[in-house]
UniProtKB/TrEMBL annotation:
<protein>
    <submittedName>
        <fullName>MFS transporter</fullName>
    </submittedName>
</protein>
<feature type="transmembrane region" description="Helical">
    <location>
        <begin position="281"/>
        <end position="301"/>
    </location>
</feature>
<feature type="transmembrane region" description="Helical">
    <location>
        <begin position="92"/>
        <end position="115"/>
    </location>
</feature>
<keyword id="KW-0813">Transport</keyword>
<dbReference type="Pfam" id="PF07690">
    <property type="entry name" value="MFS_1"/>
</dbReference>
<feature type="transmembrane region" description="Helical">
    <location>
        <begin position="237"/>
        <end position="260"/>
    </location>
</feature>
<dbReference type="InterPro" id="IPR020846">
    <property type="entry name" value="MFS_dom"/>
</dbReference>
<feature type="transmembrane region" description="Helical">
    <location>
        <begin position="60"/>
        <end position="80"/>
    </location>
</feature>
<keyword id="KW-0812">Transmembrane</keyword>
<feature type="domain" description="Major facilitator superfamily (MFS) profile">
    <location>
        <begin position="26"/>
        <end position="478"/>
    </location>
</feature>
<keyword id="KW-1133">Transmembrane helix</keyword>
<feature type="transmembrane region" description="Helical">
    <location>
        <begin position="313"/>
        <end position="331"/>
    </location>
</feature>
<feature type="transmembrane region" description="Helical">
    <location>
        <begin position="179"/>
        <end position="201"/>
    </location>
</feature>
<feature type="transmembrane region" description="Helical">
    <location>
        <begin position="213"/>
        <end position="231"/>
    </location>
</feature>
<keyword id="KW-1003">Cell membrane</keyword>
<keyword id="KW-0046">Antibiotic resistance</keyword>
<dbReference type="InterPro" id="IPR011701">
    <property type="entry name" value="MFS"/>
</dbReference>
Length: 480
């Protein structure tokens, strides 16, 4: 008698071109589910002024609504990836969908600051399991080559579009209903995805092993302590005890994390993943790139509402130039990769994003939307559309099947940890700017933070040139 997993695997048997049966449906389930995760990373941005007014958040504490989610998300991603390897990626994927949907309900129902931040942290737990399971199912369902390039382009387009669409959807529901409505939407969508996943996604084999609890705890607490120290610096200064203690503790725990991983029989981060120059470059470039983009969304959404006095919906629609260009170019990436080398496409994308961010950072109280915000967004959207797919591919290519979960988890981990660390740094730096006038403060702080984002992107360009381009050239020479 065949099992459900065996029947699912049979349905997903690959065709000669490397695509599985029901390829479109499998890709849609994975992408929609991942879209929920990315969406909730950005859906709060256009609702931040409303949340701050409703619950009495300060400007500094407001960043914890985002950081609570991305820190737990990033810190537990590696453990979530390991869970997929041990229990089967489809089984874990379905479980994470249930957790994510229920905690979204808790976020929407929050009645106090502690409740909202706590629920966002719990939501991060579900996301930490869902994201690596989705990427692992994608890499296992689509063979390396053209089939996977196309699937990866769709997956990466979701990452870019989810962030941008979250702003529009968040603004719409905050304007028409409440900022809470966007989170309630996750519940019915999650139910539908669970049903479809059980029916169509292939199950992967379960591996013998154990959880590296010590590694997961050190990674999560270490990164959280660093962010806490950086956020405290905005209130108490960089030399204050309340700043130095968490910063030192964070560094110590991350050093211990590396030592634990070296000696662990089954580490959540096999250090051999960093042996490849291209993969290491992709991890570092992703941290820098996504950190810059998180600052862009966080501060630009507040700027257009505070300076232009736009509604949350108008603020969300303000990001449409970026969203549309992002989508158009992201779907063209597979064709571009057939004509041009991956590093060239990646480098072009990061450079365009850097130019757009530098332009946007020049905003002031009298900056017109069209030439000072919309046009820079076109460059940023074009850059992101070209960047994410090749950057993701560089981060997972060449990973052994036994490390598929860890490799996928690490890509998502550097994405989230980079976002949290960079947002805390940019928020701390921006908070040091004060003019004594509300709108002028928002403008000056946004310009400072966006300048910081441009610096992060310039460092990402340097990383691509120093690590990814030469490593890919060497790989190409060996394959000839």
């Amino acid at each position: 008698m065949t099992t459900t997993a065996q029947r699912a695997s049979a349905r997903a048997a690959a065709r000669p071109d490397g695509t599985p049966a029901h390829a479109t449906l499998i890709l849609a389930i994975i992408c929609v589910s991942y879209f929920m995760v990315i969406l909730d990373n950005s859906i709060v941005f256009t609702g931040l002024p409303q949340i701050r007014s409703d619950m009495g958040f300060s400007e500094i504490s407001l960043s914890w609504i985002t950081n609570a989610y991305v820190l737990v998300f990033g810190g537990l991603l590696l453990l979530g990836a390991r869970a997929g390897d041990l229990f089967g990626h489809r089984r874990v994927f379905v479980f994470s969908l249930v957790v994510f949907s229920l905690t979204s309900l808790l976020v929407g129902a929050a009645q106090a600051q502690w409740w909202l931040i706590g629920a966002r942290a719990l939501q991060g737990v579900g996301a930490a399991v869902l994201a690596p399971s989705a990427l692992s199912l994608l890499t296992r369902s689509f063979a390396e080559g053209r089939a996977r390039d196309r699937a990866m382009a769709a997956y990466s387009a979701v990452a870019g579009l989810g962030a941008a669409f979250g702003l529009v959807l968040g603004g719409l529901v905050a304007d028409v209903i409440s900022w809470r409505a966007g989170f309630f939407l996750n519940v019915p969508v999650g139910v539908v995805m669970v049903v479809l996943a059980l029916r169509f996604l292939p199950e992967t084999e379960r591996r013998q092993g154990r959880f590296d609890i010590a590694g997961a705890v050190l990674a999560t607490l270490g990164s959280t302590a660093l962010v806490l120290g950086i956020v405290d610096a905005a209130d108490f200064g960089w030399t204050a005890v309340l700043t130095l203690v968490p910063l030192v503790a964070g560094v110590v725990m991350l050093v211990l994390f590396v030592r634990v991983e070296r000696g662990a029989a089954q580490p959540i981060v096999p250090l051999r993943l960093f042996a490849g120059r291209e993969r290491s470059g992709a991890y570092l470039a992703r941290m820098l790139y996504m950190g810059a983009m998180m600052g862009f969304f966080f501060f630009t959404a507040q700027f257009v509402q505070s300076v232009y006095h736009w509604t949350p919906l108008q603020a969300g629609l303000a990001f449409l130039p970026m969203t549309l260009v992002n989508f158009v170019l992201a779907v063209q990436v597979p064709r571009l990769l057939e004509r041009a080398a991956r590093p060239l496409v990646l480098l072009t994308g990061v450079v365009l994003t850097t130019l757009g961010m530098a332009w946007l950072s020049r905003l002031d109280l009298h900056t017109p939307y069209l030439t000072g915000v919309a046009l820079p967004m076109v460059l940023i959207g074009a850059g992101q559309g070209l960047t994410l797919a090749p950057l993701t591919s560089s981060g997972v290519d060449g990973v052994a099947p036994a490390d598929a979960g860890a490799g996928s988890g690490l890509v998502n981990t550097v994405h989230q940890i980079g976002s949290a660390l960079s947002l805390s740094i940019l928020t701390a730096v921006a908070a040091s700017v004060s003019t004594g006038h509300a709108a002028a403060d928002v403008t000056a702080r946004s310009g400072t933070a966006l300048t910081g984002s441009a610096v992060l992107l310039a460092l990402a360009v340097a990383t691509v040139l120093a690590l990814i381009v030469p490593a890919r050239a060497t790989h190409h020479e060996r394959s000839l």
